[in-house]
Specification:
The protein is of the alpha/beta class. About 25% of the residues lie in helices and about 30% in strands. It has a seven-stranded mixed beta sheet with strand order 3-2-1-4-5-11-10. It has a four-stranded antiparallel beta sheet with strand order 6-7-8-9, with no helix packed on it. The mean pLDDT is about 95. Keywords: Methyltransferase, Transferase.
Amino acid sequence: MTSSELWGPESAERYDAEETEMTSAAVLGATVGFLAELAGDGRALEFAVGTGRVGVPLRERGVPVTGIELSEHMAAVLRRKVDEDTLPVVLGDMATTVVPGEFSLVYLVYNTISNLLTQDEQVECFRNAARHLRPGGRFVIELGVPPLRFLPPGQVAVPFDVSERHLGFDTVDTVEQLLVSHHFTRDGDDGRYRRGASRHRYAWPAELDLMARIAGLQLERRVADWDGSPFTQESPKHISVWRKPG
C-alpha cells in the first residue's frame, strides 16, 4: 500500500458521471491519438487505469492495454465495460506493482502521479515505468502546473471551478508541496451540497525530469496538451514524454 488515498465504492460509481468533460470525444480523441502514436505496434501499460476512461478507447483503437489499479472498486467499474481478456488489470500500486512482459508505452494521465504523496514514491513510480519499458519505449505523464502564481501573499486557497453544480478550490502547503482539492457538489435540486477532498503532492516539470533521470529515462518532448500545442509559462498543465534509451 502506498500513500495514495483509496477510492471507495461510492466514489467509483460516481466517477464517470462527474467527469463528463474528460470523457468527451474532443478530449479523448486527442488523448488516444497521442498515446496510440507513441505505442505504435507495441503494448501499453496504464498506471492507475481507474474505470478505463482512457484505457478502453485506446484498446478499441487497436493498442493492447494492461492496467494497474489500486482500487478494486474502480477496477470493478472498468470490468463492466470490458472483460479481463480484452483489458487485463492487476490490482496494486503504481510505484511497485510489476506485470509480466515489456511495453512500448507506459502512461499516467489526469494528474494521477500526484496521488503519491511523497517524493520517494514518485521516484519509485518513474523507476517502475522504466522497469516495464522496452528499449526505446516511452513514459508519458499528464500533470497540472502548480497554481502558485495565483496565490497572493497570505492566501492559501485558489479556486479552480465555480459553476452551477460544483465549487472547487485548492489549498496549498508550499513547505511540504502538498495540495488539497476541495469539492462542493450539488447532487440534487434540494440545494444541498456534498463535500469531498483529495490530497496531492505537486511537482514541477524540472523535478519530474530529475526523477526521470534517476530512473534512466530522457526527456523527449513536453507540450501543453494532447493536441501538441507548445508548453509555455502560461500553460496550466503539461504532457511530458520521456524515452528509455536503446
